[in-house]
Recover the amino acids of this structure.
């Protein structure tokens, strides 16, 4: 008689809007990165002006996770254009970014988003006056979660937990989801935010 072992489905990260998540809950070294509402691409370029680049890990049509589908208001069997990249300075990965774009968002002005190549997505979103950004959500992403595994693929000594943020953007009222995970080699940001 064969017994089937129950394999639990990985629990997705718990995303929290700020200020529901207190500053005391955030790592001091990453608080400034997590709460910055500006363009991450612009900020990374300022820190690494001549050595910044984008490495495309994967892009193409894919199904969203249950959590991602819920946030985007999609059915689980929907297809989304998915792009996963690393943002590097001097060939050191500082950020892992995962973007999900529903098919309807790729119509009209959105069609350019499948042809970015190594151009940063943030460069497109933050220079388009017609793009609107929603609130930032923050999560602690732990070992065993898919996002942890994807963000740290190839890392020889992955930490038990990493932190990330995600935001919805709208192009002509059509959504896309951008998730940015801060990797261990990211330099510590100055503490611009004081704890409550």
């Amino acid at each position: 008689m064969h017994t089937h072992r129950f394999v639990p489905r990985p629990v997705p990260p718990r995303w929290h809007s700020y200020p529901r998540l207190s500053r005391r809950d955030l790592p001091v070294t990453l608080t400034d990165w997590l709460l910055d509402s500006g363009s991450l691409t612009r900020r990374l370029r300022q820190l690494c002006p001549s050595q910044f680049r984008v490495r495309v890990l994967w892009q193409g049509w894919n199904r969203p996770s249950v959590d991602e589908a819920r946030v985007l208001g999609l059915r689980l069997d929907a297809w989304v254009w998915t792009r996963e990249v690393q943002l590097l300075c001097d060939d050191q990965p500082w950020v892992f970014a995962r973007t999900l774009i529903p098919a309807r968002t790729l119509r009209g002005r959105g069609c350019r988003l499948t042809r970015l190549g190594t151009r940063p997505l943030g460069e497109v979103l933050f220079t388009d006056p017609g793009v609107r950004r929603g609130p930032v959500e923050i999560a602690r992403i732990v070992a065993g979660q898919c996002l942890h595994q994807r963000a740290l693929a190839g890392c020889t000594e992955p930490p038990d937990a990493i932190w990330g943020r995600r935001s919805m953007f709208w192009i002509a009222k059509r959504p896309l989801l951008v998730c940015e995970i801060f990797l261990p080699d990211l330099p510590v940001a100055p503490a611009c935010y004081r704890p409550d």
